[in-house]
Design brief:
174 residues; mainly beta; lipopolysaccharide transport protein A fold
Length: 174
């Protein structure tokens, strides 16, 4: 009886296998046909960027929309670890590509070495670690303050290039 049941089971299994092999394969594609449509929408997002050195950055966003070649974040905030500093980057919206982060609306950047920037728009070059903007900005570094029309800040070199600048530099009193 057990042998007969085994033969029936194996015969049924072989019939199902042959039936499935004869079928045309089908795939479920998560990507929409329209390239302007988001592949995925997430709310309350926290993303960790981890390397062999540990956590390199933590990014929080109210909403994240993932497209084919970029991500769009609403109310974004990122905490990034550098070799000698920790940076905070915040904006009302951010578009992240492989090489750049485009920030819009109440852009704020602060570093643990008392350097900070405020502007309405900025672009962060992820590979070269350069933050730049073409709109009016306010830069503060310690007790010093600068206002200007556009800036380029090289994070590793800690240098600021700016146009139409008005600076307030505090010096020690003798």
């Amino acid at each position: 009886m057990a042998l007969k049941t085994l033969y029936v089971f194996l015969g049924t299994l072989m019939c199902v296998a042959l039936f499935l092999m004869a079928q045309e394969q089908y795939f479920f594609d998560f990507k929409p046909k329209d390239p302007k449509a988001a592949h995925m929408v997430m709310h309350g997002v926290r993303n960790y960027e981890i390397s062999d050195l540990g956590v390199q950055s933590i990014t929080n966003a109210k909403t994240l929309k993932r497209f084919a070649t970029y991500d769009e974040l609403i109310v974004a905030e990122s905490l990034m670890r550098g070799e000698t500093y920790v940076s905070l980057l915040r904006a009302n919206s951010a578009t992240i590509t492989e090489k750049f982060v485009f920030l819009k609306g109440d852009v704020y950047f602060a570093r643990s070495d008392e350097v900070s920037f405020e502007s309405q728009e900025a672009t962060y070059d992820r590979q070269n670690k350069v933050l730049k903007g073409n709109l009016p900005f306010l830069a503060m570094y310690g007790p010093h303050q600068s206002k200007g029309e556009g800036f380029v800040y090289h994070m590793d070199e800690k240098t600021l290039e700016a146009t139409k600048i008005d600076a307030l530099l505090e010096t020690e009193k003798p």
